[in-house]
Amino acid sequence: MVIQDALITAAPKPGADQDSATPKNETNFERNDLLARYETVRQFSEALCETLVSEDYVIQTMPEMSPTKWHLAHTSWFFETFVLKPHLPGYKPLHPAYAFLFNSYYNAAGKMHARPQRGLISRPTVSETFAYRKHVDALVLQLLEAAGPKELERLAPLLTLGLNHEQQHQELMQTDIKHVFWMNPLRPVFREQNGVQHSDAGPVEWRHYPESVYYIGHHGKGFCFDNETPRHGVLLQKFSLASRLVTNREYLGFIEDDGYNRPEFWLSLGWNTVKERGWDAPLYWEKRHGEWWSMTLGGLREIVMDEPVCHVSYFEADAFARWANARLPQEAEWETASFSVPVEGHFAEAGRFHPMPLRRIGSSERLSQMFGDVWQWTQSSYSPYPGYRTAAGALGEYNGKFMCNQYVLRGASCATPRSHARRTYRNFFPPDARWQFTGIRLARNPE
Amino acid sequence: MVIQDALITAAPKPGADQDSATPKNETNFERNDLLARYETVRQFSEALCETLVSEDYVIQTMPEMSPTKWHLAHTSWFFETFVLKPHLPGYKPLHPAYAFLFNSYYNAAGKMHARPQRGLISRPTVSETFAYRKHVDALVLQLLEAAGPKELERLAPLLTLGLNHEQQHQELMQTDIKHVFWMNPLRPVFREQNGVQHSDAGPVEWRHYPESVYYIGHHGKGFCFDNETPRHGVLLQKFSLASRLVTNREYLGFIEDDGYNRPEFWLSLGWNTVKERGWDAPLYWEKRHGEWWSMTLGGLREIVMDEPVCHVSYFEADAFARWANARLPQEAEWETASFSVPVEGHFAEAGRFHPMPLRRIGSSERLSQMFGDVWQWTQSSYSPYPGYRTAAGALGEYNGKFMCNQYVLRGASCATPRSHARRTYRNFFPPDARWQFTGIRLARNPE
Amino acid sequence: MVIQDALITAAPKPGADQDSATPKNETNFERNDLLARYETVRQFSEALCETLVSEDYVIQTMPEMSPTKWHLAHTSWFFETFVLKPHLPGYKPLHPAYAFLFNSYYNAAGKMHARPQRGLISRPTVSETFAYRKHVDALVLQLLEAAGPKELERLAPLLTLGLNHEQQHQELMQTDIKHVFWMNPLRPVFREQNGVQHSDAGPVEWRHYPESVYYIGHHGKGFCFDNETPRHGVLLQKFSLASRLVTNREYLGFIEDDGYNRPEFWLSLGWNTVKERGWDAPLYWEKRHGEWWSMTLGGLREIVMDEPVCHVSYFEADAFARWANARLPQEAEWETASFSVPVEGHFAEAGRFHPMPLRRIGSSERLSQMFGDVWQWTQSSYSPYPGYRTAAGALGEYNGKFMCNQYVLRGASCATPRSHARRTYRNFFPPDARWQFTGIRLARNPE
Amino acid sequence: MVIQDALITAAPKPGADQDSATPKNETNFERNDLLARYETVRQFSEALCETLVSEDYVIQTMPEMSPTKWHLAHTSWFFETFVLKPHLPGYKPLHPAYAFLFNSYYNAAGKMHARPQRGLISRPTVSETFAYRKHVDALVLQLLEAAGPKELERLAPLLTLGLNHEQQHQELMQTDIKHVFWMNPLRPVFREQNGVQHSDAGPVEWRHYPESVYYIGHHGKGFCFDNETPRHGVLLQKFSLASRLVTNREYLGFIEDDGYNRPEFWLSLGWNTVKERGWDAPLYWEKRHGEWWSMTLGGLREIVMDEPVCHVSYFEADAFARWANARLPQEAEWETASFSVPVEGHFAEAGRFHPMPLRRIGSSERLSQMFGDVWQWTQSSYSPYPGYRTAAGALGEYNGKFMCNQYVLRGASCATPRSHARRTYRNFFPPDARWQFTGIRLARNPE
Questions:
Q1: Which residues of chain A make contact with D184, given a CB cutoff of 8 A?
Q2: Distance between CA atoms of residues B9 and B218, nearest Å
Q3: What's the pLDDT at B224?
Q4: Using CB atoms, which chains have 3+ pairs under 8 A with D?
Q5: Can you tell me the ipTM of this complex?
Q6: What is the signed CA dihedral for D7, D8, D9, D12, rounded to 10 degrees?
Q7: In percent, how much of chain B has pLDDT > 90?
Q8: Domains of chain B
């Protein structure tokens, strides 16, 4: 999601599937759980910054990304605006201008600072921004601790939404600072890494799925964004899905077969984009003395052939698939297939900040790398599920209004917090975006 | 279709469903039919120009549209390139530069003149362009008359494709010259009209359709473009469709309710577009002394309230639908519902060059205005049907490569030739395009 | 002058230096002279068009140039606005929209059509435009013939201004249509030429001028534009001027010495321009099979080495001069030196539409090629002479408001009508303009 | 000077007008003087930063300005490149990338980082930048202390140039950070001020100067930039100069007379600029509740009527002058008149960072406010003096290559260090620049 943030679905209203008189113990259990999650998530945002110096927090290197400082403030503004203002009696904002400066795109919440100007703002400083976080945290925790059962019922979904929102920004913080460091000829390192892992990804195998009506979309009590609902049936033709992600080695085959110069593989818009911007490899790749290197959050290093290819746009994923005599999966195909594997993989908590080569453990018939490492482009345009409804008010702007000219990505990446990954999760970006950890899984129509 | 032209499907290969030894009579019947259609279609392009002066043919007023002269030449280039060059032994192009000047976007057919520069070319002149048409026509007819049965089998689908391609450009010729005349403060008239028709469109009624698996896509022997195939099943939830198109009166209600200034109705991209371009009404509308007027191909005249609203973008159609507590139909819904009515309506041959108000004939339970008057935006992103394959070679560039960031329109318009309209027809434009005859039919999810 | 047109100086008010009671014979003499000049000048504009077809008149290939049709109409609008409207009682404009469409930049004369949109207007047609000229001509001549002595005194300077204005546009008509034909891959020919002239330009000699106070600017009764006044003294250091223009051969030496890639020769703005636009030779030059060719109004042909170099910008002229260990002349130096030679040279009436090589006639101590062939860039920024005043009203917008970020050119070109050339004439263009017939004469500071 | 930095003239070569055998005492005197000036100037750059936090140093709010961090580093790079590298045997740069990052525009000194990307670089950090300064300072001082007489002769002009260069950047540091703070809705304060000064500027009087040949340009032993040479004679017509600067009160008269909406006052380029950018007052002015306020380095405050108007472009200065029935002075007029007053005024060392109202002390016949407060636009295009020559090598790029499409400003401003002001000083900026402390002094042609 480029600028987008997240809306809680109608599903997890606790009162809907419980007794309205929540017993006290259960209330305390939920309260403690919320408190713990709040502290964990909020703390993780700050932990991500541990190697940054003040100057790093300020920079905006392209309109699509935001300064680290802005992410830290905006996620706090979210709690201030949707939790503190409506629920803490007599609450006064810490600073009258923050509502303007840190509103991302919620028209219903008032006017906002222009997105491309986020890097022109040296104040509030980094330490003032951390103070803003502390201020919000103290009051949220106070509110949460004092809440009675009914209030807790009202607060819980908002806090849950706020935390999921913050997790989205945690991923953006990583991809955005990567762009900042890449723009700097000094090539700073975000987090030192001890060597790279090598592994043989092995050949792709194809998993087959029969024609049928399948059901997709979220159900059950857990949290989801509104765009994952309502659950509904889709009729899928039979299809095949690749057992693993496309590797750098395979993608290099496309490059060396002159893929970036052969219009027959490309969508018309993609071809124009490639030629106008002079693309000839994924973002962050550069050739040095005849070898491909790439900028990572661990610094500049040589391409590792068995790593999943990363930082490709939809256009490149689609062109690669055509070159490989395959196609991108539909999101419904991906979601359907995903039920055969657990939601496991290489996530942000691993602290590597880069996708890793597949470790093959025996001969598995299962799909690999479905979660973590890189988001997987689907061929599905981001559109509402049948019967989809947005919430009323500002939070209704979370997802629905972005359903145009964007494509759905599934899975999760090495920058996604583990608890944020979900089978039904619908990430989305415009087809030319490639500064996220985005890669490719192929699909085919069986003969 | 902005720049796009058309690819014949695999379906109408005559040899596939007939004896390979076509009897002579049948051959002659097909030949005569082709000859007649060729002359009719080619002549209609020229008839559309009957009021134009030489200067009108040259102008390009925005990159998306093309000069009339270019349309006349490009459609001839299509026959020259795909019929004469491969099938007329020893054929030499009339002019070596035409292949460069009049190739629209077929990379496989060679280099091409930049699209936005089509209006910078005074030569070949209009009369040289008509001479080019005559040259191509004479040789195509000669080729056709001399063709034996097997050759006819090879030629027929190419000619059919060429004629359908030309019909697409006939529609563009009308919409493009409308833009040219609108840009001119003198407001020239394309075709004089005797008065306007008034009629009471009556209230909208809703037609209901149950949840089911429906089959969409082309089948049978008739011509279709490749993007209408393969035929396949889709599972649709129950839905309702409005009995008629949205009228100017209804759209004015949206304008007067401040619709263009209320972000809650708009997609995010749509809102940005509206604000950046200062839109406050459909294209070609202007306020004069407090009344809305609009530029038509019959000149500037007051808005007729019961006419279908026209020249709205996808963004405006979508926002209007949200304001009206409805939504745009999916293309599968539209196609499914279309089978209840014949392919009849107000097409280009009527010579009015503008949508007309609905004439209600008794109380009908049927859908009205499904074909003709205005193309109807659907909420469906233009994407390949499951199992879709493009043809090999240049003609494979006809449709597939445009399947990105465009939305499907269904029906046909007052600028579409009658024989070009089809239930399965998939027209497509980017969501900000509004110089076509594009309008709105609403859909709803029944309670 | 890019968009600029011309203002008569206070000088030629006949009443100022004559008896106010002009004798009748003198009146008739002046009237007849005016009639003859009016017809000659107006006719020459039309004669320039004799090879054009209607489509050629419409095209605008860059914002700086105008369609032929527009030039023909605008020069008529000038007479309509500044002669007919104020001086012909009861005059009504031929068409109410022409004042809007054909006003170039006179804010005081009302609103105007946007300059970059002049090529988007197919109507009025070419024949309507010629009819507009006829209409204006008939009434101007009628007014002129009926004018009494006092009225003639008022009309004469306006008509003289109008005719000089039209002569400026005659030059633009040639340079603008050249750009149109160059943009067309068919490379049309404006006027066929019988072969090219060759001649040996011989070595450059230097003419020397001592330090002194010199007087520049217009004086006497003849016509001039206001920017040539007032006449005034300037103190010049001693200087040397090259005896002839820089040739293609010499300029090629600069190219082959890698001049376009060596920043030390260039102004900073020039260097940026060269790199951004990819310049590596004068406008209209192109390399074919290792040889330099150039587009001329007689078609594409090989470079003639002894012709004056043409279609260079101020930036290129200045860089060439630095490479040649010289500099561009100041306009006062040029004007001072020009008094040693008659106002003779190769002008538009010669019908060659391209500069010609110098013909050396014996050993001359004189300056050659001071007038005609190509305009000569000076190092002088276009600024007001001390004491300069603009006229009141719309005609005051003729010159003064363009005195910023433009550079003065002196002499005249092969596209200038002979009677339009003058020693004190100040032509001016922005430093990146090069579609005019602009060349180089070098100057030096003597040791 | 936007991006420009400065070249020492040939004048101050000590060896040229002194005995080549400089006595030892004199050497030590010069050495000590240089040491003192070096420390003073370098220290003042750092003193300007005393209220800044790290985040402030990083921001670039428009391509024309640079981050504070960049100024601090670039001025050190200047000493490193032109003093240490060629004169300190075995010198190795502190960091290999700094030559690329901190070269402003010296093509001869190698490739450079793109100017508009200076704000995208968080590293080197602020403290690393200060360390870079310390590193350079230590070695420069060491070199200076060890230099023998001949070496001192070589070093002195380079060090003098470097210090003057740094003083130019001191002024830019103030104007650039002002722009940064203005872009921030929080409106930070650069330096607190105790109240504003009020004073009655009194009526303008006119000082008259006769027609004559005057001599302008630098002479004597003191430092100057190469663009101030050679000294030469100019013939000036008689002229009058206003006794003081234009005040805010007077400029407000222009605004209230609808000056920004009346094209008759404006240069054509100026009028386009005003309309495209929506200018209706000087930069930093804003209307709050009907009153004009302006952003200053002391924060946002109400306009003080008797202060000199500031932050106007050449276009505005020129239009104001025309409205006031006057004109801007020529630079030669200004320089000539300046000799009647001492080089005194309100400079950077005053620590007010904003122009101050004129304090009238008795009835003076002298010109006031010739130096300090605001730079004064002249009507003179920035061009070379007759006989001007640039130095060889990279330092030749200091001034000459910017002599195009810029206008000369004279005097100095409240942001100029006192020792940097000079009668012959030629500051220059493009005509649309207005983020410098730029104001207006009027001139007139006496009747």
A1: 120-123
A2: 9
A3: 96
A4: A, C
A5: 0.93
A6: 180
A7: 85
A8: 52-183 (no CATH), 206-444 (3.90.1580.10)
Instruction: Tell me which residue in A237, A403, A431 faces B405 most closely, judged by beta carbons.
Output: A431
A408 Cβ contact list (under 8 Å, min separation 6): A331, A378, A380, A381, A382, A426, A427, A428
Contact D297, D178 (CB under 8 A): yes
pLDDT higher than 60, residue D359: yes
pLDDT tops 70 at residue B389: yes
The pLDDT of residue C405 is 97
Residue of D60, D123, D180, D181 to mutate for A, most A C-beta atoms under 10 A:
D123
At residue B359, the pLDDT reads 82
Asked if B202 and B187 count as a contact pair (C-beta separation under 8 A), the reply is no
Cβ–Cβ under 8 Å, residues D155 and D143: yes
- Confidence (pLDDT) at D16: 37
B241, HSE (Cβ side, Cα atoms, 13 Å): 27
| Nearby residues of A43 by Cβ (< 8 Å), 6 or more positions away | none
CA of A127 vs chain D CAs: smallest distance (Å): 10
The pLDDT of residue D22: 54
- Looking at every residue in chain A, the average pLDDT score rounds to 92
Q: What is the pLDDT of residues A95-108, one digit of tens each?
A: 999 999 999 989 98
**Per-residue pLDDT, D19:** 42
Kind of pairing between the strands at C375-381 and C438-439: parallel
Q: Inform me whether the pLDDT recorded for B193 exceeds 60.
A: yes
Q: Which residue of B has its CA nearest to C96?
A: B186
Record: contact D105-C268, CB cut-off 8 A: yes
Q: What is the distance in angstroms between the Cα of A64 and the nearest Cα belonging to chain D?
A: 14
Residue in C closest to B102 by C-alpha: C185
Minimal Cβ distance to D125: which of A53, A61, A121: A53
Query: Which pLDDT does position C8 carry in this prediction?
Result: 38
Contact A271 B107 (CB under 8 A): yes
Count of H helices and E strands in chain D?
Answer: 10, 14
Q: What distance in Å separates the CA atoms of residue B91 and residue B135, rounded to the nearest whole number?
A: 12
Interface test with D, best of A64, A103, A122 (most D CBs within 10 A): A122
Interface of D with A (CB under 8 A): 53-59, 61, 69, 97, 100-101, 113, 117, 119-126, 180, 183-186, 188
Amino acid A361: pLDDT: 67
Residue-wise DSSP of B2-61:
-S----B-STT-GGGGS-SS--HHHHHHHHHHHHHHHHHHHHHHHHTTTT--GGGGG---
The reply to whether residue B183 touches residue C117, judged by beta carbons under 8 angstroms, is yes
Look at residue D318 and tell me whether its pLDDT is greater than 80.
Answer: yes
Write the Ramachandran bin of B308: left for phi over 0, alpha for psi from -120 to 50, otherwise beta. beta
Count of CA atoms in the C-beta half-sphere (13 A) of B162: 28
Could you give the dihedral angle defined by the CA atoms of residues B357, B359, B364 and B368, in that order, rounded to the nearest 10 degrees? -40
What pLDDT, in 10s, does the model give residues B349-366? 999 999 999 987 666 788
Both structure tokens of B76: 């001839």
Q: How, if at all, do strands D407-411 and D427-429 pair?
A: antiparallel
Smallest CA–CA distance from D99 into chain A, residue? A185
Which amino acid is it at C395? Answer: L
- Say if the Cβ atoms of C401 and D213 lie within 8 Å: no
Comparing A7 with D114, the larger pLDDT belongs to D114
Question: Inter-chain contact B105–A404, Cβ cutoff 8 Å?
Answer: no
Residue ranges in chain C whose pLDDT is less than 50: 1-20
Q: What's the maximum distance between 2 C-alpha atoms anywhere in chain D? A: 70
The nearest CA of chain C is from the CA of D262 a distance in Å of 9
Segment B76-88 shows an average pLDDT of: 97
Q: Enumerate the H helices of A63-148 as residue ranges.
A: 68-79, 85-87, 98-101, 126-146
Give the integer Cα–Cα distance in Å for D124 and D135: 14
